[in-house]
């Protein structure tokens, strides 16, 4: 009966929303309700009762606490229980996406972001978290699109701006015909607390010290100046691209570890507040 034309033009139609069925329009003729049109384009209403909604919100708060404690598996469990009680709440899916990303379950994180967006297409945080997961999967073009959408909805968000720039830079590196994917922006790294922490940690590794000492001996054409001098971050920066290329050639696994460490710390360094 969809699209049925009204049979009565002299009365005011009465519209009734029927959960899970659609929109029914009635008019009253001789004290009788006569159906004059029907549309089944109504999104089914949530079956959640107030008690369920309240319990779901409590579970969400518990999940947020687990996130602060870095207990991400427990956080996923709490958000999942909240979703079961109130499946039409975009926040629960988005928060679970954040926990999934922390567990490196990026595909699941993207699916949760998509569900959140399906419920609330103007939810900027869902687009932002989708960008994080896509970036971690090296899907930089899609990540750029997600961050751009997040910024369209929340233009003043510095985190989205920063992550968009990083994704765009990664996309350029991948697209470059001469790009090796290794290109390091040393100026940015020196100001990156995550890199400084990671570099200091690596310097304590005897294998890393031996590797760097040998490379520096070859680079300067003489005996190594001693690994003690290399513990200064400025020495690492002076070596620059040549240093990074030598590491890539001699120990590709080390450079991959470096890249993954910086990527994971950079995209999660900004403290996210969970709704």
TrEMBL record:
It comes from the Eukaryota. GO terms for cellular component: membrane; TRC complex. Keywords: Repeat, TPR repeat. TPR repeats lie at residues 56-89, 124-157. One of its GO terms (biological process) is post-translational protein targeting to endoplasmic reticulum membrane. One of its GO terms (molecular function) is molecular adaptor activity. The keyword Repeat applies. This is Small glutamine-rich tetratricopeptide repeat-containing protein beta. The lineage of its organism: Eukaryota, Metazoa, Chordata, Craniata, Vertebrata.
